[in-house]
Design a protein that fits this description.
5-stranded mixed sheet; 19 helices
Length: about 575
């Protein structure tokens, strides 16, 4: 309560985002975790979690009062008008501090306690924390023990502080070679296995950029890459995919980092994929939000803003790189993927590529395992990228949001291939930022252990399992699609209204802002036609089969009616079908 200057303010106006003259009057309450607006004119209350607030602004004073504008990570934007400027200043200062905790211990997950409801029972605190084990996941993949092995070199995080304890490395690589390679990679993030294709032996390997500079090289790194190549006997070369634009990689090379020189890495094919850095992505999202907030009745204005943001172009770039990786793995060629430090673009593309290859990752359980492995275990910096704490705003970037958007794009094109629906993706997105659960707190596995999150907080996976019914996709066909190959044609990359415009126009405390639109299933006309065609064909086949059975019964009845024996076994309604039975 020490950071709350004014816990209750009356006669506050919640403004309509379309018509600022239209508003609802109510009372604003500030608690340690939420901002609550209650209006006597409405039955619903507006609750906003402090951790969801991405920015709080005190706008210039007007003759009607002092506006306070709140923008949220879940793309809700609300504006309150407060009569007294002093009270507006108190609201602004309180929310600015409460939405930017100074330490991890202040995060919501350390205060949250689950409670039971009519729809779901009380959740035991440990539920969900033990759902994933990386060694078990490699066993599920069928990782070949002849060519790959779990190493204990990182058990104390001395080899790489931002990697998990258990790492899968080539069996032919001696410990000294592994250690030498780690020294030549940014942040010690050496190439390690993340996915093994059991049918063809191809390996998906992730890492950070080498510390090559303009002329540097490492015999250990070169030998280690050769060990990765030899771990797939069915292929005589491998791809090294640098997900960055080539100019960015060249700039890093001048700064002492960079990319692999093909002359030093024989039997490798080097590819740049042109995904922009975190700063470009952050600015792009800001422009997208501005386009969504531009209240114009003309489609031209919105489409111009959407195009100017470049956001869908970036989602498309992530998808294109992922498709390239997936196709290479599917064709039996191993792929090494990196960006700069290997925790942003690398996580996006490696995760999405596996989603395309392996149907397991398109189930509820599998998608959780995918996020646990590619994002949590391998050290995506959630605390920094999502801005959980009051830190450097230049570290914030919507990397996870883009991955969920790309996943939604694939789900939209292949609705029958996913066990979960779009609401599942929205729930994960919102709870990444809410900090209600400890799952995404911290920048790496080591930090999560230090914070004792599994002991002190609840897991999001336990919560989602407890409420799984609402996330089931009714179009899911478990034995349907195998490897997916989504279209990246411009007309097939869609704007996700269900995420970015959930709180628009209309059904709220102030005609805009309190309640999200339900994210209806989005299926392209082509996919809808395919699903309809498949269902129709199935019904037609069933009808033909039943028709044959009915004709067979008619023949049997006709042959047996002379003896009267059929009447002992069939009711009159059936025998009447042949015309031989009498009605009553």
């Amino acid at each position: 309560m020490e950071h709350i200057a004014t816990p209750k303010v009356e006669n506050v106006h919640l403004l309509n985002p379309v018509n600022l003259r239209d508003s609802r009057v109510g009372t604003l309450y500030i608690t340690t975790t939420h901002l609550i607006f209650a209006s006597p004119e409405e039955k619903e209350e507006l609750w906003i979690l402090h951790m969801h607030m991405s920015s709080v602004e005190k706008l210039p004073l007007t003759t009607a009062g002092s506006p306070v504008r709140i923008q949220c990570h879940n793309f809700r934007v609300v504006t309150f008008r407060v009569g007294r400027d002093r009270e507006a200043q108190d609201i602004y200062s309180s929310l600015s501090r409460l939405s930017r905790p100074q330490s991890v211990e202040e995060l919501y997950c350390f205060q949250y306690r689950a409670s039971s409801s009519n729809k779901s029972p009380e959740l035991p605190q440990p539920t969900g924390w033990n759902f994933f084990e990386i060694s078990a996941e490699f066993s599920r993949q069928g990782a070949d023990s002849q060519h790959w092995t779990l190493t204990t070199l990182n058990n104390d995080y001395s080899l790489c502080p931002t990697y998990p304890k258990q790492l899968m490395v080539p069996s032919s690589a001696q410990p000294s070679l592994v250690q030498g390679c780690a020294k030549f990679r940014s942040k010690g993030r050496l190439p390690v296995l993340t996915y093994y294709h059991t049918s063809n032996g191809a390996a998906l390997v992730r890492c950070a950029q080498p510390l090559s500079g303009l002329k540097g090289r490492s015999p250990e790194d070169e030998a280690y890459i050769n060990c990765i190549l030899k771990s797939n006997p069915k292929s005589d070369y491998l791809y090294i995919v640098d997900t960055r634009p080539k100019m960015n990689a060249m700039y890093n090379r001048a700064a002492g980092k960079g990319y692999e020189a093909e002359a030093f890495y024989p039997n490798t094919k080097f590819v740049f994929k042109g995904i922009e850095n975190i700063h470009v992505m952050r600015d792009s999202l800001a422009k997208l939000v501005d386009a969504c907030e531009t209240k114009s009745e003309t489609m031209e204005t919105f489409l111009q803003g959407l195009d100017a943001s470049g956001y869908l172009k970036h989602v498309k770039a992530v998808m294109e790189a992922s498709i390239f990786i997936a196709e290479a793995i599917q064709c039996g060629t191993s792929v090494i993927v990196h960006c700069s430090d290997g925790w942003d673009r690398t996580s996006q593309t490696c995760a999405l590529a596996q989603l395309l290859i392996d149907p397991f990752y398109r189930t509820i359980q599998g998608f959780q395992a995918l996020i646990e492995k590619e994002w949590l275990s391998f050290g995506h910096k959630f605390t920094d990228r999502c801005g959980f704490l009051d830190g450097d705003p230049r570290e914030v970037s919507p990397i996870m949001s883009q991955f969920l958007d790309a996943t939604w794009q694939v789900l939209t094109q292949f609705p029958e291939a996913f066990q979960f629906n779009a609401d599942y993706l929205l729930a994960i997105h919102d709870h990444v930022y809410s900090c209600q659960f400890g799952t995404f707190v911290g920048n790496c596995q080591r930090e999560r252990l230090e914070y004792k999150l599994a002991e002190k907080t609840y897991s999001l996976w336990g919560h989602l399992t407890n409420t799984a019914d609402q996330y089931i996709n009714r179009l899911y066909e478990p034995n349907g699609a195998g490897v997916l190959s989504p279209s990246v044609m411009p007309q097939d990359i869609l704007f996700w209204t269900g995420l970015y415009c959930r709180y628009d126009l209309g059904k709220s405390v102030a005609n805009g802002g309190s309640g999200p639109k339900k994210d209806a299933p989005v299926i392209s006309l082509l996919n809808l036609a395919q699903v309809t065609s498949t269902s129709t064909q199935s019904l037609e086949d069933t009808a033909k089969h039943l028709s044959k059975q009915v004709n067979g019964l008619k023949s049997l009845i006709s042959n047996s009616k002379a003896t009267g024996a059929v009447k002992k076994f069939l009711p009159s309604v059936v025998t009447n079908m042949t015309g031989g039975g009498g009605g009553s």
